[in-house]
Amino acid sequence: MTSLLTATDLRVAYAGGHRALRGVDLVVPAGAVTAVIGESGSGKSTFARAVLGMLPDGARTEGDIAFDGASLTGLPAAQRRALRGRRIGYVPQDPVTNLDPLQRVGGALREALRAAGQGRDDSRVRALLADAGFDDPDRIARRYPHELSGGQRQRVLIALGLAGRPQLVVADEPTSALDVTVQKDILDLLCARATEDGAGLLLITHDIAIARERAHHVVVLRDGAVVEQGAPAELGAHPYTRELLGASARLVATRAPSPVSDPVVLAGAGLTKTYGARRGRVQALREVSFELRRGETLGIVGQSGSGKSTLARALLRLHEVDDGELTADGEFDVRRARGAALRRYRRRVQPVFQNPYASLDPAYSVESTLREAIRLGGGTADPGRRVRELLSLVGLEEAHAARRPRELSGGQQQRVAIARALAFEPETIVLDEAVSALDVVVQQRILDLLARLQRELGVAYLFVSHDLAVVRQVAHRVMVMRDGEVVESGETARVFSEPRHEYTRRLLEAIPGGLPEAEDVGAKEDG
Asked: What is the value of pTM for the model shown?
């Protein structure tokens, strides 16, 4: 195969001296998929930004990067920018910071087509959105980013990255926010671009199952250095690679549901929510009912746009539902709560969102963040001691208290977000895609942490996720949503082993690498 992209002894050091890449050698052939995997902080995204010429000011690069036979090292910034979009496409991970909130989707795509020298007609915009998995591209083209779900925004980024029909596509975690069925469609599309059109795909991912299933060649990074690379079937020579493989293929203990005698801490009946005016009405929730018991985890799964996050935000009173009942402890009317009563409810039901960096104040140290939560939660005579207790609960050291979010890894940021929620001593934590952006090793540590906290504190979790393998591991019961409706619910072991709805079966069949092996356990305490 012809080498489309070649990195030779690539080294990158950030201002302050941190060496992010340490002598990386890597080749992306034309017509093939090359995956780069590793933990958070391993240098994956730094490598992608080095290829794109998007490293921050002050970063120092040594070694060489060659694209289509020509060296990119030392190329003027204007020439590097000219390559992006036209010859090198980019699909970033975070749609919140990479989409203009004031620009409609169609306008963003027409701008990308113009910059790439492509036709800007509406038919091309519709085709790009249809390829990205949208059933109604005309409606999506009229939307602003805030009117779309996280998964839908990620698909828009993919459409933007492919708009110029580039020779090389650099996809940095392109599917971490997508449900398994859309994930499969998007990976099919990206991989088809590489194999059918003679382009190359550089796939940055923390999901080793995706890398093994989709890539022709896999490069394993750790602390900025390549520890192993080769064909997917040949991986495993290095202990670190075996650790990644072990975290991905870990035995899953299915969890028994809480006894019916346990108290119900949160319940919904007939919850309904509609967005938009008459011409563009979208029914996000359709007669949704559920019960969550003390010390139990209820998993909520479904495609992007199924209503999962709308339900989570409704429970947090961040969205108001149009109809239905929402009660806490069997008697407290959540929908009617106002003033002090609403503040007390919000202390009892706390959120942990997908992107911890976006939900933490960048100007606050960890200690300041936790002290504020302690104060809002009712205070304590010794807030310093409580901060230390919370850090210990989530597996962080006292030294982390002085750091700001940018000085923490993604997994550490999520631990701080969990500690902030625990500062209120809640009965329930709503986890909305709380581990989907984490690599498999860090993800497993967070899941172990959540399980331990549940055992020790008796807290209930509403666990919203598009990752069915994770839900199977953590949830006692699961609820499957589609187009705002609950299409199936029940004990996790039953739903995953004997799905009754065709939609549930399609979700299970789309899991990369299939479900991990199950190991039944008979009691909730073993979960």
From this structure: 0.73
